[in-house]
Every structure is written in C-alpha cells, then in structure tokens.
Amino acid sequence: MRRADEDQKMGVVATVNGRERRFEVLPRVSLADSLREELGLYGVRVGCEHGVCGACTIIVDDLPVRSCLMLGVQADGKTIRTVESLGGGKELHPLQQAFQRHHALQCGFCTSGILATAQALLEENPCPTRDEVREVLSGNICRCTGYQTIVDAIMDYAACAQANDTAFDAGAGESAT
Amino acid sequence: MSKSEIAQIRPKSIGTSIPRREDPGLLTGRARYIADIVLPDMLHIAILRSPVAHGRIRHIDVAAAQAMPGVELVWTGQDCVARCPGITSSLEQAGFAVTVQPLLAHDEICFVGEGIAVVVAHSRAQAEDALERIDVDIEELPVVTDALTAVDGADLANAAVASNMIYHSNRVTDPVDEAFASAALTVEGRFKTPRVNASPMETRGFVASHDWTSAALTCWSATQMPSFIKTMIAIFLQFPEQNLEVITPAVGGGFGQKAHLHPEELLVCMLSIELGRPVSWIEDRQENLFRAPQAKQQLNEMALAVDNDGRFLALRDRVTTDSGAYNSLPWTPLVEGHAGILVATDPYRISALSAESLSVATNKCPIGAYRGVGFSAPTLAREVLIDRAARKLGLSPFEIRRRNVIRQEDFPYQTRAGMMIREGSFLETVDRLEAMVGYEDFRKRQQEARKEGRLLGLGISIFSEISGIGTRALNFLDYPLTSHDTATVRVEPTGKVTVTTGIVTSGQGHPTTLAQIAADAFGIPVEDVTILAGSTHHAVGFGTVASRSAVFGAGTIGRAAEIVRGRMRAVAARLLQATSDEIEMAQGLVHVRDDPGRGMPFAAVAGAAYFAEATHPEDFDPALEATAAFDPSDIVLANGGHAVIVEIDLETCMARVEKMYAVEDCGRMINPMIVEGQIRGGMAQGVGMTLLEELIHDDRGQLTTSTFQDYLLPTSRDIPDIEISHLETPSSLVPGGIKGMGESAMISTPAAVAGAVNDALACFDVAIEQFPASPQRIFEALSEAAVLDGASLPN
Description:
The complex is a heterodimer. Chain A is of the alpha+beta class. Chain A is 33% helix and 14% strand. Chain A has 2 domains: 10-85, Roll (Ubiquitin-like (UB roll)); 94-164, [2Fe-2S]-binding domain (DNA polymerase, domain 1, Orthogonal Bundle), CATH 1.10.150.120. Chain A has helices at 31-39, 94-101, 111-124, 130-137, 148-163, 172-175, and strands at 10-16, 19-25, 57-60, 63-66, 79-81. In chain A, strands 2-1-5-3-4 form a 5-stranded mixed beta sheet, with helices on both faces. Chain A is globular and about 50 Å long. The relative contact order of chain A is 0.15. Chain B has 21 helices and 30 strands. In chain B, the strands form 8 sheets. Chain B has a 7-stranded mixed beta sheet with strand order 3-7-1-14-11-12-13. A 5-stranded mixed beta sheet of chain B has the order 9-17-16-15-10. Chains A and B meet through helix 2, helix 3, helix 4 and helix 5 of A and helix 1 and helix 19 of B.
C-alpha cells in the first residue's frame, strides 16, 4: 500500500482507449480531471462534480462509472474507455450516427456521458425495451432534448445491430471505412 | 433601404430535416467548450462567496491566502472597485431604481453567493485552498427574503433601492370593476411560480488573455451574447473596443442564463490585464446554483371575469417579481413580471385589462432571463383560471377556449396592452389539440381510473409567442433598446458561399439552419455554404435570445445575399445577353427566367466576377461580398398550444406526466427536426418548473437547494414521449415566412402541467396555486380534502 501524500504526485498505469497510458497525478485529483488534464481527453465533460448529472460517465472495466466520483489514482490497473474511443478516426460509430439521425443531442455537453451509458447498456443487453433504456438513462441528465430522441436513437441502433447480427463494437465506425 | 426589407428566399433546403453539421464534433468529444480552452501559462481563479445574505464587510485579511502555494494574486472588493465601480444597471424609465453591482463586494453584501474576494493561482484546487485562508469579518444586517412583505418594509435588501421597489408600473388601467361586478362568474387566484435555475449542463465560464505587446484582449466566453459582452467590457473597463475579441466556443446550453453580463467576466478581464497572463474562470455547479442568474419567481394575483356563455370580459392581474438584490444586465427584473403582464391576455379577446406590476428587491441572487422569461407565469395563472371557469360553467376546456381565442375575422386585433396581432392559428390550434388528446375518451378514462383509485388530470394551454424579438418587440415590452443584427455574405471565386454572423449557438443548430437559409438565398446546395460564427471579429449580433436567431438569420443573410445576387445577376445578364431582371438563380445555376437552357453554373458567374473583367458591366462593383442589417418591422408572432396528462399517485402524492402533446405554428419551418427538438426540450423544462424544480431560500436567505440532489431536474423517467403537430402560418415580416419558436414550450407547458394537476384534484374541490406541485403540496391539498383517510374517490 503506497502512502498518499497530499502534495506528491502518484504514478498510474492504465489501459485507456486501447493503449497503455502512464501518467502522474496528485492523489486528490478526480479521474475526470486526470483524464482531461493529464491525457488531454477533453471529451470527458464535468457537469456537477458530485455524481448526479452523469455528464462525466465513462466506462471502467466494462461498467459505466462517474469519473468525477473516482480519483485518478484509482485508475491504476484499470481499463478505461472514453468517448474518444467510440468509432474510428474518420467516421462516426453507428450509435453516434443514430444520435445524429434522431437529433438526440442539442448542446452536446451531456452526450459523451450518455453515449457511455448507452454503450455499457447495449454491451450487456443488446436489445433493450424502451422502458429499460429510459430506466438506465435516468442517471444522465440532459437539459436540451427531453430524452425522447435519445431513446429513439438507442432503440434504432439496437434494432439495426440486431438486424445485422453485430454485437456492440466500439470500433465499428472504423471497420466501416 | 430599410433594415426591415424582406429579401427573397425560395425555400428548397428550408423545410427539410437535414442532419446537423455540428453533430460530429459534439458526438466524438472533439468539440471544445469553455473548460477545454487551455492556454500556455494560464492561471485559474476561485471566488470567495458570501456565506450571509445581507451584511457589511468590517474587515478582510488576505495575507495568509496570498502566502499559499501556487497563489499569484488575491484581490478583495477594495482592489476591484478602484479599477471598476461595478455593473451599473439602469433603464430609461421614470421611477426605475438603478443598482450598481460591484464585481466583488467591498462594503455591503446583498445575497448569499455574492463575491467577496478572488484568488488567482496555478490551479483551481490551489485557488480553492487559498480561499479557506481568507479571514473575513461580516456584520450581519436584517435579511429581506419575502417580496410581498418587503414592499414598504422597514428593512432594505439593498441600500440603493428605496422601499425595496425597483419598479412599479400600471401600464394598462382599463376600468375593469364594472365588468367584474356584472360578470356571471369571476375566477381568481394567487399563483406562485418558483424561483428556478435554468441549469444548463455546462456551467458558466470565461477565459481572458491580455497581450500588452499588441494591446489586445482576447476573451472566450460561454455566452449567448458575445457582441454585447464585448461592448460592455469596453465600457465598464474603458478598454479600446477595437482591440477586443470575444470568442464563443461550443456552449453547453444557455437557456437565457448565459445571456447576461456576469461580474466574473469583467473580473477575469481585469485580472488578465493586471497579470499579463491568461486567466480562466470555470464555475462549479454549486456556484452556478448560488450565483448564476435565477429566474421565474412571480406572484400573479389574477382574476378573470366571464359571462354566462363562457366569454371573457376582463382580466385583472397584479404581478410581484421577487427580483433579487441587483438588476441583472441587460434585462433587469422587468424581464419577468413587467414584460410578462403585457401578454397576459394573449391569445384571447379580452376587452378590458388592468395590469399592475411590481419588481421588488430581496436578498437573493439577481433574477434574470430563462427561456420564456416573463411569459411562463402569467400564462400559467390565466390558463388555470380558464380551466376553473370552464368547470364552473360545465364547458370543456377546449370549448371555452374556442369561444374566446382571437379568430381570423378579428385580424388585425390589438390587445389591450397594445400589441397588434395580424396572423395566427389560434382556433385551429384548439381544434387540433382536442383531436390529438381525444378529449371525450380521456374523460371516460379519467372516470374509469377514479374507480380504480387512480387520479388522472388533463391540462391545456394556448399561447402566442413574441418571437424574433427586435426593436419593435423590445419597445412594446417597455425596453427603450435598439436591436438589429448583421451578416456578411461572400460568394467565393469557386461559387462557394461563406457567411459570417453574430449568431452563436448553444445547441439550437444555427450552423445548419443558417446554411439552409443561405443556400436557398442563392439556389445552391447547402453543402456549398459555410457559416462562420463565434467571434466578435465577425458580424454583429444582439444575441441568441428571445427566439430571434431564425428571424434575424433569415433577415440578415437574405438582405446581404440580395446585394451580392444583384451583382452576380449583372454579370450573368451580360454573359447570357439578357437583362438583370430576367436572371434567376436555382439548383446551382444562374439562368434566364423560364429558360434554364439559357444559363450557366453559379460558380462560373462567380469566377467571371473575380477574374474576367471583360464580363463586367460598366461601373461594376465586383465585390461579391456584402454586409446587411435586419430588424423586423413589427412583432413576429408565433403561436400554438400544449396538452398534458398527469397521474397523481395517492400513496406518494407524486404527480407523474403520462403524456404530452404540442401544436406549434412557427410559420415555415427551416428544419422541422430541430423545431421538434426545441419543443421537446422546452416541454421537459416546463415539467421541471411545475413539478420538480425549486430554489428554496430559508428566512435568513440561505439557499437550501444547492446541489442536484435537492434541486431536482427532470430525468428520462419524468418526461414521456411527446406527440407534436404543426400548423403553418407564414410570417409576412420575415424572408421565407419564418418565425422564431425556441421559447414557446417553456411559455406554455407549465400552464398545461399546472392545469393537469388541478384537473386531477378538481373532483375534491381543492386547487394548487403554488408551484412546483411537489408531493408535499399535493399532500397538503389532498389532506385539506380529507382524501387520504381511505375514503373512495368521487365519481
């Protein structure tokens, strides 16, 4: 067990978006801030910093996690996916495409977190009901859309994936190019 | 040429739901919001905020804070006031109380959350650490929290506001007493709308970078009003405006909250100038709930006189706005009750109005703009009263509205407040909404549900929306302001079009919808247009507020494009051996009217203007670039209605929305998908304000709802699917027949939700007039009716 010294940065080794990343952070810095400031992953949005709004949701070891409620040092040894991993370099992932098609975002600030929540849901349950989607989404606040089109987009994506017999694949956008 | 001239735009891309071009950046996390603006050598601030609602600073000691690790500078209010006295907010209205809000309090403190000192450090965390070392001694003063008792009370909320009265007006004083005395029925109530926070998912934020070598001050602001912010910085800090740029990055929602000049914005500029380094302020959520402009808190004491047939005879309203401690800029608290009361009768024929409005200072955060500002509260009061009258007269809520809405044959109809209504589809809205709801079936279902011990209620609301707010609308609302925008349109040598606009987006889709407008102005594909926005080096705009961007986008781009089109037509006329008047532009071609065969590609005409002098007519001005202003010649009025069905759970006393319906008439829609997005989002906010959200201050002015765990925003479980239907009455004042519509849902949904709750409770003869209709308030209402003792529900 290492001693957490308030002023001393600690080393972290984690798999982030498919690559091993090493960074140093002060023990009090949240995982959200660590990812943003140490790794430049600014797609992680910070909305309330007390775990209610869900904007900072990322996937840690296949589970959706509020990155404002985890410390950066707790990422050591973990596998992390942020919105930057979704899709490939030059094309939107089909889930993102469904969001665009259905107008499931307006200001976009909650979108990274909502995509992570949806991604984690679909990996566990590839064909959810509308009600299940609404239930899972209730941990992410969107102030712009009224949620309906987000549910539409997730359902549409799930139906398409079902038809094409493709399970959720974070790199699907890339493979399509 | 007049600034209200209506340019010709032939809708082609307009009217289609093309996907938004800004989405890929937002969906991939690549878009940069204010918190993602990171500059070399940048410093961060944290602000010490007052723990008391009213007091006087006796002593403040920052020495220990100054010595903390990473701290570059600590300023108190005294340091600030020497450089800038504060934000003066005045209006040219007799009797209006001017306030000066210091950037940091240096003497009197007027609300919890008001800034007292600022720390600049290498990180936000270090700055926050240092805040804890500031020693401040505050003499507490009596706290004024209730606007009603504050009037003529002995205690003042702000020493600058005598009698706590910021403004008191009797704008319309029809003799209504006679109508009330002779009316078959009078319905009245005291309707309280809650103090709320617009709560954009991104908080406020501002970055300033001063470079002494070039004398330039570059700012980044999560704002809806960059041009306004720029000019205010120039005025309040006496900074040369030509050296100022305000850049708007991606903005994570605004809803009006980001349509103000915030003291922190001036403070950050001053600190960057002082230190010669970039300085960043990113608000945290708690600061936002304490200090970002709050909204909507009105008391409407309203009465409606109705005859035997359900016809409205007169309306009396006395509105009190709980204004907070200072006037926000530019809106001042008049944007709430005072503006709202002027639309209290719309969209109904009501021939007598008595309208009195009071804006009262309290020791709370200043009130400001939030979607539908001013209009939500009186609309709620009026529509709930209309339902009540309908019940008493045995009329359906649709029928009573049908008998009173302004009809085709009434146009032009002047409301008693003085607004001229020339067009609209009020009657059609009522009919459409009734069909969507299936009214008779609903009443049957309601009865059946009651037998099962379930309480259902239906509420409806009919609205008109003053959209595209320009000078005429502002003047009607008693703001002596001028408000026009400009756009610059340039056709490039290869026939592509670049538009620069002052309109910034915080989610409304302008990069897409303005491109649709520009494409149709030239008859070219939308892919050939790029919209440049987000820098005050671009065109001038009043701001993305008041449902004005669609109107001003179409107006400015249309007028500027028309100038450029004229020059292109002159070249094409020469090349095609026709006259200018005969030249048309469509489908990427410039051709002789009715003869597309005699034409050439749009790009070829552009190329000729740039590179082939031989094609130019005599005295030809080859600038394929023009800037033009627009300001509509009168109020641009949209209209529609909403219906909401709620179920009240008798166990938990919670009201849950089961279904919502919207009818919207915003003239010709630019992008129907985006219109519907605005409706759904606004309706969700309307549900929030009416059932969930409330900023609660205790009697010492302490905010007791300072996190999202006690300030409740609607989630995906709270908002059902929404059915939307469109009517289309094109505007005669705007190119393409376009109207604004972004605020409508928030104007009228609260009324429909409130009506639905009251419809559910009506069988017990109890009513709720204070909102949100929380479980506590519903419990109290049901207790009053002794319903919770296990008695069966009335049929």
